[in-house]
Amino acid sequence: MDLLNALYLKLKEELPNLTLRQEEPMARHTTFRVGGPAALMALPRNEEEVRGILCLAEQVGVQPFFLGKGSNLLVADEGVDAFLIKMAGGLNRLECQGENGLYVGSGVSLAQAASFAAEHSLTGLEFAHGIPGTLGGGIFMNAGAYDGEMSQVIAWVDCLDERGEPHRLEGEELKLGYRHSIFSCRPWLITGAGLTLSHGQETAIREKMADLARRRRSKQPLEFASAGSTFKRPAGYFAGSLIEQCGLKGIAVGGAQVSEKHAGFVINTGKATCRDILTLIRLVRDTVQQKTGVELEPEVRLLGCSLEER
Question: Active site includes 299?
Answer without folding.
Answer: yes
